[in-house]
Amino acid sequence: MTKAEVIAQISEKTGVEKVDVQQTLESFFTVIKDTLAAGENIYVRGFGSFINKKRARKVARNISLKSTIIIDEHFVPSFKPAKVFIEQVKESEELKAQL
Fold first, then answer.
1. Are 70 and 53 contained in the same domain?
2. pLDDT tens-digit profile of 4-59?
3. Could you give the CA distance from residue 51 to residue 76 in angstroms, rounded to a whole number?
4. How far apart are CA 93 and CA 5, in angstroms?
5. Which residue of 40, 41, 78, 96 could cross-link 53, Cys pair, CB 3.0 to 4.6 Å?
6. pTM, full prediction
């Protein structure tokens, strides 16, 4: 599903104009990016958590140059779904039908 399809579906279900839904969704994404960039996490009950995961410093190899490089510790954004969310996906009849 693309972002345009998500916007269309939200607009259909709520009766809100697509332009307004798009602005709201874009603002939501901006808030998430800005908050994670500031080092804070976002917790949405029943949905999940947008968190920064710390990656430890490590030594890697560049095989083509036959040299080692050091990758410093850094943070990567991550999403951890809530238990309710996970259970809903596990119990989904549509996903079971695809198997």
1. yes
2. 999 999 999 999 999 999 999 999 999 999 999 999 999 999 999 999 999 999 99
3. 8
4. 22
5. 78
6. 0.75
